[in-house]
């Protein structure tokens, strides 16, 4: 597969980190949940994220998925996320890429103990997108299951797009494919996170003035 190096080359060295909207200029940040009961928040987030991602990734075929999980000092800590993924009907295939990265010194509980973050990357049917979206947005709702408590990234290296639903509150979409990002900025303008809207307006204001045919301005 050899996606790991291609991801770094296409999206930058921080592509599988947190807060991608702030790390990679020119991206989009969407607001997902809309308040209400906890289950309503998760279901709304899944629905909105599905709508956005199906715009980028047609429902047929496969998509590349990357899972990121803090492992600490022991690989046995990965048993829980694997069980929860299996509960969701997600089995990491044999054809995959896995690797470990050391946790930065400033982020460790104990600076004298080396800790690790585990990554697993594989292809996944786009038709089952909602399964992993549930796992991504339910991460802050402990009682909800399945809940592997791992970060999940959806990407297409050929289209040069990467999406990270960081929890029920929102989703970042980044990449050098400016045309697709501009289309989404117009089509889903009403879903953009208002707090970061000035930054996105600055990057894509020309697209808002001349929306693509059939795309509402939000």
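^ structure tokens above, recovered residues below v
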């Amino acid at each position: 597969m050899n996606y790991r190096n291609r991801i770094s080359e296409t999206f930058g060295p921080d592509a599988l980190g947190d807060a991608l909207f702030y790390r990679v200029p020119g991206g989009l940040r969407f607001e997902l949940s809309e308040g209400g009961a906890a289950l309503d928040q998760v279901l709304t987030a899944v629905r909105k994220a599905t709508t956005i991602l199906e715009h980028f990734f047609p429902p047929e075929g496969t998509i590349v998925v990357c899972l990121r999980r803090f492992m600490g000092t022991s690989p046995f800590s990965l048993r829980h996320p694997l069980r929860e993924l299996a509960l969701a009907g997600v089995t990491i295939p044999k054809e995959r890429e896995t690797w470990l990265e050391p946790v930065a010194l400033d982020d460790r509980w104990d600076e004298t103990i080396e800790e690790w973050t585990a990554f697993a990357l594989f292809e996944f049917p786009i038709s089952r997108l909602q399964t992993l979206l549930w796992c991504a947005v339910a991460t802050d709702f402990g009682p909800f299951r399945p809940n592997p408590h791992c970060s999940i990234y959806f990407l297409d290296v050929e289209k040069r797009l990467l999406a990270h639903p960081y929890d029920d509150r929102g989703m970042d979409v980044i990449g050098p494919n400016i045309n697709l990002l501009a289309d989404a900025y117009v089509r889903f303008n009403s879903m953009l996170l208002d707090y970061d809207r000035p930054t996105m307006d600055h990057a894509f204001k020309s697209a808002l003035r001349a929306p693509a045919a059939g795309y509402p301005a939000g």
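Residues 3-209 form one domain.
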